[in-house]
Amino acid sequence: MARMTIRRAMKELRDRGLIRSVHGKGTYVQAPPATEAAVTDE
Questions:
Q1: What is the DSSP letter of 31?
Q2: Are strands 19-22 and 26-29 parallel, antiparallel or unpaired?
Q3: With 80 as the cut, is the pLDDT of residue 40 above it?
Q4: Across-strand partners of 28?
Q5: Helix (H) or strand (E) holding 26
Q6: pTM score, two decimals?
Q7: 12-29 burial, b for 16+ CB within 10 Å, e for fewer?
Q8: Residues 6+ apart with CB under 8 A from 29
């Protein structure tokens, strides 16, 4: 895979809030952001 392909995929995951990058530490998976549908009371 090309480096640009990986960088583009990582940026998209960061934009979606699925990963976070910590300078000097690495990249970590995060819990998906809460959506309004997941927060509704039943």
A1: P
A2: antiparallel
A3: no
A4: 20
A5: strand 26-29
A6: 0.66
A7: ebeeeeeeeeeeeeeeee
A8: 18, 19
**What stretch of H or E contains 37?**
helix 36-39
Helix (H) or strand (E) holding 6: helix 3-15
Per-residue pLDDT tens over the stretch 10-39: 999 999 999 999 999 999 999 877 776 666
Residue type, 25: K
Alpha carbons 33 and 16: distance in angstroms, whole number: 8
Virtual torsion, Cα 28, 8, 23, 32, nearest 10 deg: -30
